[in-house]
């Protein structure tokens, strides 16, 4: 680089000129303060081009829309869940806790036609632990576990970061457990009776 | 007593508006939004700030010189507020119409320095001490060019009375007792033969009566920025190096008083600049043959219209200068201490001395 490329301007009028151009700059920004950034998503062409105006968005009232494939808060549609436990197994940070109880009969169908045979008395996701990798949503066979566009869910008490997705009350869960135990008892009794009958023959 | 209360109310109102404007202007110039939550467009923000400050604990550091520490904010504010006593707000409204107003104002504002030094020393804090020392050095130095610039106005106007200086700069010239037969000439030179006594407006403002006062105005404005510790001369309060300067240890009500004093100082120096150079409460619109713009926008002295027009012009000119102060703060970087002293002693003071000399010669041309 040649040194002569930088030329310092000196002298009284140059200084006055540079002071005035400084004032001109702030005045231009002040005048353009009636224009504002629009909350356009990152996919929009104008996202990286804002020639003038205020750049601030008043966040809780305005927010930039998140991309469709963004990974934010998890949601489980329990009606569609077959309690297969795949999500809990793949989770790298073990933030999903599932307990399952076998149903005594078929409970119903998910929206994609899979039969449901398990109750989930516990289906907890600890959002404080979640690392938002999205693996659970890819393994989910019925697509009931999804990422929502909600990202602002801070809590005062960290216990509230554990989301409970079960549709059973503790009483109902207890009832289902007893039903299963009763059915298994009956089946065991029937089985032992059948065994005894075969022995007698 | 009534004048005291009215001036105090007016001052509090202006300062609250100014504190809000400062935040909004700063935000807009930096492409931000500023306060938006409290009231419409955040307009109640500074009121809430004051209420918050009043509720805060009044902390006096254990190692502070308690008497000086407690007295300092009151002294600083009293010194600045006393300056408002001689400011003419309208043609017939002046808290204390004394004949040596300019002299009194310069003297009483200088008392501010004592308060700053008390605050800095009394706080027993390095930052406060440094800030106070810088502040005193700066204010004492810049009083000289400011004083010389004011002196040139006094020489042109031949008066130390703010109200008389005000009357000289407009169509009401002959209404002032003692000036009944005075005449204003364009650029103050009778030889040009253009009588502006009844034209008024901007042609009789001091910067027009004697155009060299325009230079004096620029000198005074720069010096007044330094006197009110405003950027780019805010080294006494340089946030990035001294935290807050002399008022770093203050909290609650005492801090509110210091803050109020600082903004009052801004208002006061702008008011003085308007009165001495920019035609005081006179209208900027001149009388043009048939269009008696100056007469229409002056009102009748002694009646409500005169008071309203006078107050309106004085305050709107002041707000223009205040806006300029804010804009300068958010445009220019802070000067170093040596640059500050260089500007004062080697640039402004010699130029101001030259202006004083020229003002004397100009005055000879005027009579």
UniProtKB/TrEMBL annotation, chain A:
Family annotation (PROSITE patterns): 4FE4S_FER_1, 4FE4S_FER_2
Residue ranges of every copy of the 4Fe-4S ferredoxin-type domain listed in the record: 70-101, 121-150
Signal peptide region: none
Gene3D superfamilies documented for this protein: 3.30.70.3270
Record keyword Transport present: no
Pfam families according to UniProt: Fer4_7
Residues forming coiled coils: 173-200
Keywords (A to Z) from UniProt: 4Fe-4S, Cell membrane, Coiled coil, Iron, Iron-sulfur, Membrane, Metal-binding, NAD, Quinone, Repeat, Translocase, Ubiquinone
Superkingdom classification of source: Bacteria
Cross-referenced InterPro entries: 4Fe4S_Fe-S-bd (IPR017896), 4Fe4S_Fe_S_CS (IPR017900), NADH_quinone_OxRdtase_chainI (IPR010226)
Protein name: 4Fe-4S ferredoxin
From TrEMBL, chain B:
Record-linked InterPro entries: NADH_UbQ_OxRdtase_su1/FPO, NADH_UbQ_OxRdtase_su1_CS
Membrane topology annotation: Multi-pass membrane protein
Its biological purpose: NDH-1 shuttles electrons from NADH, via FMN and iron-sulfur (Fe-S) centers, to quinones in the respiratory chain. The immediate electron acceptor for the enzyme in this species is believed to be ubiquinone. Couples the redox reaction to proton translocation (for every two electrons transferred, four hydrogen ions are translocated across the cytoplasmic membrane), and thus conserves the redox energy in a proton gradient. This subunit may bind ubiquinone.
Subunit and partners: NDH-1 is composed of 14 different subunits. Subunits NuoA, H, J, K, L, M, N constitute the membrane sector of the complex.
Pfam families found in the cross-reference section: NADHdh
Key words of the record: Cell membrane, Membrane, NAD, Quinone, Translocase, Transmembrane, Transmembrane helix, Ubiquinone
Catalytic activity line of the entry: a quinone + NADH + 5 H(+)(in) = a quinol + NAD(+) + 4 H(+)(out)
Location, primary (coarse class): membrane
EC identifiers of the protein: 7.1.1.-
Superkingdom per UniProt: Bacteria
Localization (cell): Cell membrane; Membrane
Membrane spanning stretches: 71-90, 102-121, 207-226, 255-278, 307-328, 340-365
Protein name: NADH-quinone oxidoreductase subunit H
UniProt keyword Transport, yes or no: no
Keyword tRNA processing: no
Family named by the database record: Belongs to the complex I subunit 1 family.
Main EC class the enzyme belongs to: translocase
């Amino acid at each position: 680089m040649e040194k002569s490329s930088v030329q310092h301007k000196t002298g009284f009028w140059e200084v006055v000129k540079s002071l005035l151009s400084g004032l001109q700059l702030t005045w231009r920004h002040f005048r353009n303060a009636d224009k504002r950034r629009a909350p356009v998503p990152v996919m929009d062409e104008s996202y990286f081009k804002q020639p003038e105006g205020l750049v601030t968005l008043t966040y809780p009232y305005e927010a930039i829309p998140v991309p469709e494939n963004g990974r934010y808060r998890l949601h489980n549609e329990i009606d569609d869940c077959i309690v297969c436990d795949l999500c809990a197994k793949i989770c790298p940070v073990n933030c999903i806790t599932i307990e399952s109880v076998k149903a005594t009969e078929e409970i119903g169908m998910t929206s994609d036609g899979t039969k449901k045979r398990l109750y989930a008395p516990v289906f907890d996701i600890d959002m404080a632990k979640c690392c938002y990798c999205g693996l659970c949503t890819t393994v989910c066979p019925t697509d009931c576990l999804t990422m929502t566009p909600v990202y602002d869910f801070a809590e005062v008490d960290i216990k509230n970061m554990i989301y409970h997705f079960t549709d059973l009350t503790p009483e109902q869960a207890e009832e289902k457990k007893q039903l299963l135990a009763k059915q298994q008892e009956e089946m065991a009794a029937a089985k032992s009776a059948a065994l005894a009958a075969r022995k007698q023959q | 007593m009534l004048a005291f209360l009215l001036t105090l109310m007016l001052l509090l109102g202006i300062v609250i508006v100014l504190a809000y404007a400062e935040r909004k202007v700063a935000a807009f110039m930096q492409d931000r939004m500023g306060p938006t939550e409290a009231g419409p467009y955040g307009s109640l923000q500074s009121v809430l700030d004051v209420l918050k400050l009043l509720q805060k604990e009044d902390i006096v550091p254990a190692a502070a010189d308690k008497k000086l520490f407690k007295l300092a904010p009151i002294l600083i504010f009293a010194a600045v507020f006393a300056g408002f006593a001689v400011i003419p707000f309208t043609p017939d409204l002046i808290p204390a119409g004394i004949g040596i107003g300019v002299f009194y104002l310069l003297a009483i504002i200088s008392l501010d320095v004592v308060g700053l030094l008390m605050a800095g020393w009394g706080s027993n804090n390095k930052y406060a001490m440094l800030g106070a020392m810088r502040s005193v050095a700066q204010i004492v130095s810049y009083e000289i060019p400011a004083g010389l610039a004011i002196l040139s106005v006094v020489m042109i106007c031949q008066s130390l009375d703010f109200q008389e200086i005000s009357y000289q700069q407009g169509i009401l010239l002959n209404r002032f007792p003692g000036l009944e037969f005075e005449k204003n000439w364009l650029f103050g030179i009778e030889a040009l033969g253009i009588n502006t006594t009844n034209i008024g407006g901007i042609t009789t403002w001091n910067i027009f009566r004697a155009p060299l006062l325009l230079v004096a105005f620029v000198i005074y404005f720069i010096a007044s920025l330094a006197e009110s510790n405003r950027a780019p001369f805010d080294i006494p309060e340089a946030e990035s190096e001294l935290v807050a300067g002399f008022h770093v240890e203050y909290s609650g009500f005492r801090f509110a008083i210091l803050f109020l004093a600082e903004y009052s100082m801004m208002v006061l120096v702008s008011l003085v600049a308007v009165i001495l150079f920019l035609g005081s409460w006179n209208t900027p619109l001149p009388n043009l043959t048939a269009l008696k713009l100056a007469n229409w926008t002056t009102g009748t002295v002694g009646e409500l219209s005169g008071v309203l027009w006078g107050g309106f012009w004085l305050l709107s000119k002041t707000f223009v200068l205040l806006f300029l102060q804010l804009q300068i703060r958010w445009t220019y970087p802070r000067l170093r201490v040596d640059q500050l002293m260089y500007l004062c002693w080697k640039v402004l003071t010699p130029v101001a001395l030259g202006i004083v000399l020229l003002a004397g010669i100009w005055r000879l041309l005027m009579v």
